[in-house]
Amino acid sequence: xxxxxxxxxxxxxxxxxxxxxxxxxxxxxxxxxxxxxxxxxxxxxxxxxxxxxxxxxxxxxxxxxxxxxxxxxxxxxxxxxxxxxxxxxxxxxxxxxxxxxxxxxxxxxxxxxxxxxxxxxxxxxxxxxxxxxxxxxxxxxxxxxxxxxxxxxxxxxxxxxxxxxxxxxxxxxxxxxxxxxxxxxxxxxxxxxxxxxxxxxxxxxxxxxxxxxxxxxxxxxxxxxxxxxxxxxxxxxxxxxxxxxxxxxxxxxxxxxxxxxxxxxxxxxxxxxxxxxxxxxxxxxxxxxxxxxxxxxxxxxxxxxxxxxxxxxxxxxxxxxxxxxxxxxxxxxxxxxxxxxxxxxxxxxxxxxxxxxxxxxxxxxxxxxxxxxxxxxxxxxxxxxxxxxxxxxx
Amino acid sequence: xxxxxxxxxxxxxxxxxxxxxxxxxxxxxxxxxxxxxxxxxxxxxxxxxxxxxxxxxxxxxxxxxxxxxxxxxxxxxxxxxxxxxxxxxxxxxxxxxxxxxxxxxxxxxxxxxxxxxxxxxxxxxxxxxxxxxxxxxxxxxxxxxxxxxxx
Lengths: 394, 151
Known about the structure:
The complex is a heterodimer of chains A (394) and B (151). Chain A has 394 residues and is an alpha+beta fold. Chain A is 31% helix and 17% strand. In chain A, helix 2 (67-74) links the parallel strand 3 and strand 4 (81-85). Chain B contains one helix and eight strands; from the N terminus they run H-E-E-E-E-E-E-E-E.
């Protein structure tokens, strides 16, 4: 028997709805439905799923989902792998994929689902004051009640150091919206956004306006990983995982979600550090080989910093890079967030970005980059540990 | 003093010393007695030398504005009348560059200047717990810092 190589064979999503739109469904139910959709997409029987990976379970409660409950809900006869990524938030999407790949390649499990479900209860909205905010004592006494406040401070420093402007942030928001306008699953599919609309939208926390912030949505997404051998019998064209993993530099801790005591020389980065070079080396591809990228965009500024961290442009050069149209579809050098991303499709903590990365490698995106062979996906810049993946067309 | 309504900390074993020092209007950070280095936020070991011989010491020297935001939507009822209000990250160069995140007093039509000196003052949370806050100073003058917005 040859070496087991893991590939992505299924993608599934629930419908994405505005916050509260799935009420009274629970995160558990949506997670289960996304896995069912992924199994159907792959042409697999649900009972074949024997591994469950997730991350960012930051809203504990009786509705919180977990491997044990998912196994019951889905009727899985045997669970051989379950894992959960240590992380404050969306830094874990690609990391959970790496756990799934590792479990499949090690032979610990055969069909592993990566899942993330978001169904925000009214008392614990991500974008509002919450008694359960992580790193509460560091940020709440400062009046920093929401991630927008904290990442705004981080972005402001980038603007100070490199001359990045609100106009550059606008380009990221407009790009996401144009892509969402081509994607019927996107919440903002039928809502165009002009530059004037962007600048007229209300300020949330300078420099972030409303349209610099992701959508408040509910929904779930799942991906199925199995061996390349097994994938031969399946419905969809398998997608290669060229490289995937976690990587964060030292000294960050809670980073921008905490007291902002990151090292001075890396403060205006996403803290991926040497991981970026390691990821490309493991995949055996270069930056110029990447045809399309999905970069975590809870806020517009994350896309700018992600482009820099992974070397698609130089440090501090992301503003001019986006202003030159390089992230646009179809003519940009590197189309970014081609489903609309968190800003305009839905906010599923990076798993919907991973799904869009898979669609690009299948050739089924609604903003399909012609002949795309290599796709890049980054989880949340600035959260430690964060993660990223390089996907390939098979 | 009128109840500000502001949510304050829920002191834990890790940071009780910080908040009790605040009650005496002393702004502290953690200092390692073995190697002398400062760190923030508190963790049980010195990040430089891994000693657990740590102490809360009062931050000294000037505080410089490292970055900031100004919040325009009230996400807690206690700040409804304060909108827009500032949040600062200030740096203490004399204490290994330790940073503190706190409310920033500002002129609402101005953009705070990164690198400018800040002055510490105190506000109270709903339960009376003093919270550190900063206001901008023009270097040397003690006057409120005002600079036209860059837009």
